[in-house]
Design brief:
- The complex is a heterodimer of chains A (711) and B (156).
- Chain A is α+β, with helices and mostly antiparallel strands and 711 residues long.
- Chain A has 3 domains: 201 residues, Aldehyde oxidase/xanthine dehydrogenase, molybdopterin binding domain (Aldehyde Oxidoreductase, domain 4, 2-Layer Sandwich); 148 residues, Aldehyde oxidase/xanthine dehydrogenase, molybdopterin binding domain (Aldehyde Oxidoreductase, domain 4); 311 residues, Aldehyde Oxidoreductase, domain 4 (2-Layer Sandwich).
- Chain A is built from 19 helices and 30 strands.
- In chain A, the strands form 8 sheets. A 7-stranded mixed beta sheet of chain A has the order 13-14-11-21-18-19-20, with helices on both faces. Chain A has a 5-stranded mixed beta sheet with strand order 2-3-4-5-6.
- In chain A, α4 crosses α5 and α10 packs parallel to α11.
- Chain A is globular and about 85 Å long.
- Chain B has 2 domains: 74 residues, Roll (Ubiquitin-like (UB roll)), CATH 3.10.20.30; 73 residues, [2Fe-2S]-binding domain (DNA polymerase, domain 1, Orthogonal Bundle).
- Chain B has 156 residues and is α+β, with helices and mostly antiparallel strands.
- Classes of the chains: A alpha+beta (711), B alpha+beta (156).
- At the A-B interface, α7 and α18 of A face α1, α2, α3, α4 and α5 of B.
Chain lengths: 711, 156
């Protein structure tokens, strides 16, 4: 225990004996969560309303506050609890936590999942919950055996009396443990003592995701439930003028047609009649001034504003160097709007009654969901319960609440439980898009070929201006400049500016947010500088990464594992990029071939990641693969375009996804680290577009300055 | 009235004959393992087996499969023990999991007609099922594991 970290007892830790005789330990829960827990109580168990509960059969149930959208949080958080609890992993189960302030992610100040913060946000608190339970189980066993607690130890779900060899399973100790005083001090393991954390344990949700039993939002079924679809104005900002529902109402199974905030809802016995009813609506929209908007107008707005942005980083005097330089390098980089295209289109189910409201939703924002329903129903927080389902992808899209509002409004109107299902077309055309941006880059190289000045002027729409206006500081939105203002390279004069231009296309958080475009822009421009200096891209970065060992280490590892500099088969080229995002460091090398007929093919990606302490290497690998595929789809195919105020694309025919046939072989190498955990869900995405684009640059000699990559 | 044979059971449905099989399964029969992803046969999330062949339930009128044997993910095995499901668990394939019913049923059909598929065979058969989480690499591995598993079972 000597090297264990001592943490003071937290006032919010509580223990109690539950009805069925189990140990309940966790943060104090508010009334809504207690109500839900009571309804879920079984005869043999106890109220499963805390971070952790142990049943008398030894089953450990961990309540996961974050949403499971594929990133593996439903396995990672239980691993952290089980590690400090010294649980038998075979006895560990996971379930979704209810909505309650107790489950607030401290990094987000909300019960929400985003910004790759789940493990980072709960890293300490859930381990403390496990450690406290363990102390109480130890005390319970010592009391049972009438021995000193110091003579006992825990081991994989049981307490052992070292001298006598006697042991008791946790399940047999829960009643005694529950009446033990809370430990005055908690001891957290040193990472060198971890036995579960650091192992590639299989995901707890895999069985349910291979036999059809996992319940996604789309799968929620309630007695008396109706299904709705909503027809929205295709033009952003447009309004309903009038509609005729006669034909829709004649369709068998259609129950009601009504107007809600977002459009016209057709409510029916199932999705299919609702969808037919929607097709049969006759509608007149007031498209408003937004109907004029198109890509050219947006681009001109960006171009007109780009030089007048707010300066967000200003080292030295880059502008003066640029003005004085005869041979500055200049380039314009552009990225398009992107839709999230979660495999599960948006949906939510609401049951609004006079006495309360229940919402079942694949949501990344339990607090926001609850608040949306409170506003629409007038009910207090304790009457609004949120039941989180599995999410068929999230990527930031499900941090929004538009689909929640649809379900709540319709349920209020029809007085029954209602599931609203968006079509794929709705999902693509009514998203909150990854911002398109327009970027002017300029650099001045010194005699040694290394940049002496770097200027990056960004123009584009702000996510925070809509979502969190109070977090916009002096017209600067940190999400637009992440990955740009913090470039790690040793350049004496750096000037980065951001001009906020909001043309009226809704924008939102998209996997890796600002870094998703800024890594492309900065890492590709850096390759342009390296080429101008006649330097190898890896050498060039190495020379500039002074004082940034974590960047440098992933760069070196990716370069080495990819065989950087070694001969390739004819027609193949490599590109490299490195990016820090969400406190993790990732470098990727892409091997690409370019062919006039076959286009761009990515054959192999080598990925090196330093994400601090590793909780589950198998999941980290999967998340790197996932981030790469998500970013590769964007780099090679992704583009939302605007015409007459509406989105041109509508489904996978015109907003295509990467297929298995296009999947490169991906190798992930994790750097061992004892740093605090970094994010894992998003950091795999930023480097892939620039790695591929830099390989294409190497192949063609022409820099790639726009996405998607075109030859 | 439309009669279907779903997962070995005869089911009679009072349903509009043009209704896509997907919604008959999900809304009328409560078999929600088959997913709606695009509605126009482009993503494969709704893949089921009709007489052993993969079919896109979202564009298959229920009347067109009357009397035919339909297998959904729920009917593939009683306990998730089909060789392909076991391989999926062994390789820890799913992430969000939404597309996996379609992936698994497509892989089942592939291995039925081609017990030892090459990478090209896998690409050709599986490119019609999209995965936004990027589980493709593990899908490839799992298909190979399932193929080896089936081959070993047949030898013994």
């Amino acid at each position: 225990m000597s090297n264990r970290m001592e943490v003071s007892r937290r006032t919010f830790l509580q223990a109690s004996l539950a009805a069925g005789g189990g140990l309940l330990l966790g943060f104090e829960l508010g009334p809504a969560a207690h109500a839900e827990a009571a309804s879920a109580a079984s005869d043999t168990g106890f109220e499963p309303n805390a971070w952790l509960s142990i049943a008398d059969d030894g089953t450990v149930t961990v309540r996961v506050a974050s949403s499971e959208m594929g990133q593996g949080v439903m396995t990672a958080i239980p691993m952290l609890v089980a590690e400090e609890l010294d649980a038998n992993w075979k006895h560990v189960r996971a379930e979704f936590a209810p909505v309650d302030p107790a489950y607030t992610n401290p990094r987000l100040r909300s019960q929400a999942t985003g910004g790759s913060t789940a493990v980072r946000g709960f890293w300490t608190s859930v381990r403390e919950a496990g450690a406290a339970a363990r102390e109480m189980l130890l005390a319970a066993a010592a009391q049972t055996w009438a021995v000193d607690v110091g003579e006992c130890r825990t081991d994989a779900g049981k307490v052992v009396h070292t001298a006598s060899g006697r042991s008791l399973e946790y399940g047999a100790l829960v009643a005694t443990a529950a009446v033990q005083p809370l430990p005055e001090l908690l001891f957290l393991k040193d990472p060198t003592e971890f036995t579960l954390v650091g192992q590639s344990l299989p995901r707890l949700d895999t069985p349910a995701k291979t036999d059809g039993s996992a319940v996604f939002g789309q799968d929620v079924r309630l007695p008396g439930m109706l299904t709705a679809t909503v027809l929205r104005c295709p033009v952003f900002g447009g309004k309903l003028r009038r509609f005729d529902a006669q034909a829709a109402k004649r369709i068998a199974g259609v129950r009601e047609v009504l107007q809600i905030s977002s459009g016209i809802a057709v409510v029916a016995d199932g999705f299919w009649p609702a969808n037919l009813g929607r097709d049969a609506l006759s509608v007149e929209w007031d498209e408003g001034p937004g109907a004029e908007l198109d890509d050219d107008i947006i681009r001109n707005q960006f171009r007109g504003a780009v030089t007048g942005g707010r300066v967000v980083r200003n080292d030295g005097d880059a502008e003066a160097m640029l003005a004085a330089a005869a041979d500055a390098l200049k380039a314009v980089y552009e990225v398009p709007f992107l839709a999230h295209a979660c495999m599960e289109p948006m949906n939510a189910t609401a049951d609004v009654r006079k006495d309360g409201c229940d919402i079942w939703a694949p949501t990344q924002g339990q607090t926001a969901t609850q608040q949306t329903a409170m506003k629409l129903t007038g009910l207090p927080a304790e009457k609004v319960r949120v039941h989180t389902t599995f999410l068929g992808g999230g990527f930031g899209r499900r941090s929004e609440v538009d689909f929640i509002a649809d379900a709540v409004e319709i349920s209020i109107a029809v007085g029954r439980p209602v599931k609203v299902i968006w079509t794929r077309e709705d999902d693509i055309q009514h998203d909150f898009y990854r911002p398109a941006t327009y970027n002017e880059l300029a650099a001045v190289l010194g005699k040694n070929g290394l940049p002496q000045a770097w200027i990056h002027r960004i123009a584009g729409p702000s996510i925070l201006a809509r979502r969190f206006p109070d977090r916009v500081r002096d017209a600067a939105d940190f999400t637009n400049i992440e990955g740009a203002a913090n470039i790690p390279y040793a350049i004496p004069n750096v000037r980065v500016s951001y001009a906020m231009v909001n043309p009226g296309v809704p924008v939102g958080f998209w996997r890796s947010v600002g870094s998703s475009q800024n890594a492309f822009i900065t890492e590709c421009f850096l390759d342009e500088l390296a080429a101008a200096a006649g330097k190898d891209p890896v050498e060039y970065r190495r020379a500039l990464l002074v004082g940034h060992p974590r960047h440098e280490n992933v760069l070196e590892l990716a370069a080495r594992k990819s065989g950087w500099g070694s001969p390739l088969p004819p027609g193949r080229y490599r590109g490299i990029a490195v990016a820090e995002s969400f406190a993790s460091f990732v470098a990727q090398v892409a091997e690409v071939s370019v062919d006039a007929q076959q286009g761009i093919r990515v054959h192999r990606v080598v990925c090196a990641v330093d994400c601090g302490v590793t909780v589950n290497p198998g999941i980290i690998e999967a998340q790197m693969e996932s981030g790469i595929v998500y970013g590769l789809t964007a780099a090679l195919k992704g583009q939302i375009t605007i015409d007459r105020g509406r989105v041109r694309q509508s489904n996978f025919n015109d907003y295509p996804m990467l297929t298995i046939a296009e999947m490169p072989s991906v190798e992930v190498h994790i750097l061992p680290s004892r740093e605090d955990p970094g994010g894992v869900g998003e950091p795999g995405t930023p480097p892939i577009a620039p790695a591929v684009a830099n390989a294409v640059f190497a192949a063609t000699g022409r820099p790639v300055r726009r996405l998607p990559v075109r030859l | 009235m439309v009669s279907l044979i779903v997962n070995g059971e005869s089911r009679k449905l009072d349903i509009e004959p043009s209704t896509p099989l997907l919604w008959a399964l999900r809304d009328a029969l409560a078999l929600t393992g088959t997913k709606y992803g695009c509605g126009i046969a482009l993503c494969g999330a709704c893949t089921v087996l009709v007489e052993g062949q993969p079919a896109r339930a979202c564009v298959t009128p229920v009347s067109s499969v009357a009397g035919k044997r339909i297998t959904t993910i729920e009917g593939l095995s009683r306990t998730g023990g089909h060789a392909v499901q076991r391989a999926w668990v062994a390789e820890d394939v799913p992430q969000c999991g939404f597309c996996q019913s379609g992936q698994i049923l497509s892989a089942v059909a592939l291995l039925e007609r081609n017990p030892d598929p090459t990478d090209a065979d896998i690409n050709a058969a599986m490119s019609v099922v999209l995965c936004r989480c990027g589980t493709y690499q593990r899908i490839r591995r799992a298909i190979r594991v399932a193929a080896a598993d089936k081959a070993a079972a047949e030898r013994s």
